Amino acid sequence: MPNLGPTELFIVLIIVVLLFGVGRVSRIGGELGSAVANFRKGLQEGAKGKNEESDQPETV
Q: How many CA atoms lie less than 13 Å away from 54 in the CB half-sphere?
């Protein structure tokens, strides 16, 4: 698999902008960033909930 350098990434970015337009690319980037942030938040909440459950004694 070939390595992508800065020149190749720049060319790909230009092609994407030409195909989709600047507005749509920025909206997709914003939505992708929001999705990553929500994913990280969910991981942190899941780990916090798991730690709280392990701190409580088991009842039989």
A: 6
Helices in the chain by DSSP H: which ranges? 6-20, 22-55
Residue with tokens 């030409």: 18
Other CB atoms within 10 A of residue 43 CB: 10
Over the stretch 9-55, which tens digit does the pLDDT of each residue have?
Answer: 999 999 999 998 988 988 988 999 999 999 999 999 888 777 766 65
Half-sphere exposure of 9 (CA within 13 A, CB side): 4
Token pair listed for 59 = 């009842």
pTM: 0.55
